Amino acid sequence: MLNTVIRIAAVAVTLSAATGVAYAKNPTVGGAPMFANKNIIENAVNSKDHTTLVAAVKAAGLVDTLEGKGPFTVFAPTNEAFNKLPPGTVETLLKPENKATLTKILTCHVVAGDDMAASIKKMSMGNGGEYDLKTVGGCTIKATEMGGKLTLTDEAGGTAHITIADVKQSNGVIHVVDKVLLPKM
Questions:
Q1: Can you tell which superkingdom this protein's organism belongs to (predicted)?
Q2: Domain residues for 66?
Q3: Which residues have CB under 8 Å from 26's CB, separation 6+?
């Protein structure tokens, strides 16, 4: 019986590798397990690497939206990514009088749909190595694939790398990025 279970598990792993379908549980992000049956906000609040993002989402009034049905693809900058902004930027953006600017920046990290990394890579390869992602904030992010890794270029010319891909949520998917994506200002 045990040998049968081991063989079945080996077949599943082989099928997973052959098809690119992930059968394993979601990764941990910021030291917290991510659950595919929880929504984007329910998972994000547990990540110690995303406390700045969660505070910004709350300040912008986007919690209800990101708890909604979706599906959404969220490029989630880490605390370290926010720390790369000029000193004082985050504090300034979190002020109530800057809510519109903060909302614009945050919604430039969200794409309507459930875009897994493999589909973004496939689209970029099919379009001469570059694929335009239209965000719900009206921004265009250029996705490029190099050496199996996805790079995102924002409208300001900055680049972010996806450091953790395909974190499934009940209402979409999160891709962790190492830089805040900025719109044209």
A1: Bacteria
A2: 25-177
A3: 33, 34, 35, 36, 167, 168
